[in-house]
Amino acid sequence: MENLLIIRPPQSFRYMQLDVREETIVSYWLGYLKAINMKNYVVYDFNLDRTLDIERILTEPGSRDCVVACREVGDNPCYAYRVGKAILERTQRRVIFYGNVGRLPTQPAFEELKETHGRRVEFVIQDEPSLARLLGLSDQGPIFGQGLQLEPYGFGQKLDPMRRKRMKASVETTRGCHFPCRFCFINTSRNYPARWVRRPNADILADIKTFYDTGVNNVVFADSEFFGAKIEDYHGITELLESMVIQFPGLHYKIYSRADTILAFGNLELLKRSGLVSVFIGVESLVDEDLVMLKKKTTASTLMKAITALADAKIYMDLSFIVFNRNTTFETLAENLERLAILYRRNPRYLGMPLFSFSFEVTWQVEATRPLSSQTYVAIDLATKFPSASGAVFNPDLEPLMEIYRLLSYEWSAKVTQLNLRRPSASPEQMAQMEEWFRTLPYFCLEVMKYFLDLARQSHLTLDSLNAMRDHLFDMIIGFYCRTLPAGWLDCPSRPGHAGVLDYGRPVGLLEPEEYWYDAIPPVKQDYWERHRSDVGGIH
Fold first, then answer.
1. Please, what is the average pLDDT of the chain?
2. What is the rounded CA–CA span in Å between residue 247 and residue 5?
């Protein structure tokens, strides 16, 4: 029997090597294959195996079908598109885009693939029996919520020693979400057979044990929402956590949760005792008008209350924001920064990385967008978030400020990766200085963001002044590094090949192709996606 090729495309920038975990779209599919005794498959994971390139996939012998795992978040759809297109053009294999793919068939880039290659292109939502049926396999295996368990595959990938040590388990307890947030893929298309499914505790515990028995005691519960809106489910969650306390001593785990649901559940003591160390909260904004527009169905005061409660309980957080959304103005930005400052003044240690520094809302409804200039990198970043990018849903007048915030975010996130990779060889004194850098980073970001916001409000930060403003920003960054880091660690990793090369006096082209995996996955030329990025320059 021919091998089935299962491919996980990249999720984000190449430098982001710290989060080492499997893709649950793949691992639960492998669990299904195990249950029906299907063993003829090969898994390729670009995130785990940093030596992987498309040529290895294209030359895999004896294969007919390729399953490309896809999540409609971040950069993943564009990478899935590039992987799928290369396979379709250079082989006779069938490509099945599988997972959170509800919107893909109606997007022009993917429509063109379908029109060109016909029945060799398929789309299947995250439903294991449906994928099995399409592949001619038994569709009578277990389903999610009724016996399906994962099959780990990460340690079979080519992991370097540093990344092998950082391996985390990735487990789903739920699929879907009850809430109507307008920006979420769950509410813009059908991606699962049901709106909301919670798995039996026995299945969840079995998945944790699968990893725990191999020495992996760090778990990420990779749900869109851990608790859900059904209060009647909370007793079962309590039983799950109590079982984890007994069965998995020393376990540490992270969840994704709304602020209001974690407050509704309420038992932070049990969460912490069962191993909770981190909560990812989709804050989006601390301004009520933004939250109404985004259909978040919560309030800024609820968000502030939940963040404060978690910090007081000494539970770390990742606070995610849609910094630039369709409602964003200078005034809403200022309000968000002031409320963030209040949170940091109260209990800063547990508020995590400054994810409030840059992000933006995207829409796959092209008619709802407005054009950006060709002078900043914002349009290129936008084009890597979804295949049909032709403009912005946020106010293009904010573009100069966005570019400064983008440079700030790119630099600190690249620096975080660089510093963490230096930990094994750092001296105690260097470690102390590094920890001081991490401690003060959010304060520095808030200071920088307020400073340039004031310049933008006074019309001093414009497209015409961006070159000088970029240089001023990096003078501030170097000053911060000099105050906190060892003498040999003061370089700015994003500056030589990126920020320092940009010339905002002319159209900006794509820099650092290797960061966008162009050395591993061929760039797309002369097709829909590239044509719609032509107004921001070509690949350098």
1. 91
2. 35
| 99 φ/ψ angles, rounded to the nearest 5 degrees | 130, -125
**Domain co-membership, 189 together with 319:** yes
Give the separation between CA 359 and CA 319, rounded to whole angstroms: 12
pLDDT in tens, 201-211: 999 999 999 99
Domain that holds residue 321: 166-361
- Looking at the fold, whether 208 and 100 belong to one and the same domain comes out as no
Question: Domain for residue 265, yes or no?
Answer: yes
pTM of the entire predicted model: 0.93
Of the chain, the end-to-end C-alpha distance in Å amounts to: 44
Spell out the alpha helix ranges (H) of 154-193.
161-165
262-318 pLDDT tens trace: 999 999 999 999 999 999 999 999 999 999 999 999 999 999 999 999 999 999 999
Angular region, 256: left φ>0, alpha ψ -120 to 50, beta rest: beta
349/354 Cα distance (integer angstroms):
12
Q: Which of 320, 344, 361 delimits the end of a domain?
A: 361
Amino acid at site 217: N
Task: Give the number of other CB atoms < 10 A from CB of residue 420.
Answer: 15
**Distance, CA of 513 to chain centre:** 20
315 and 223 in one domain? Answer: yes
For residue 368, what pLDDT is reported? 65
Q: How far apart are CA 45 and CA 29, in angstroms?
A: 14
247: left (phi over 0), alpha (psi -120 to 50) or beta: alpha
Q: What are phi and psi of 535, to 5 degrees?
A: -75, -5
Q: Are residues 170 and 95 in the same domain?
A: no
- Say if strands 252-257 and 218-221 run parallel, antiparallel, or are unpaired: parallel
Q: Does residue 96 sit in the same domain as residue 36?
A: yes
Nearest C-alpha neighbor of 104 from the set 137, 66, 72: 72
48 plus 184 within the same structural domain: no
- The total domain count for the chain is 2
Longest dimension (CA), the chain: 68
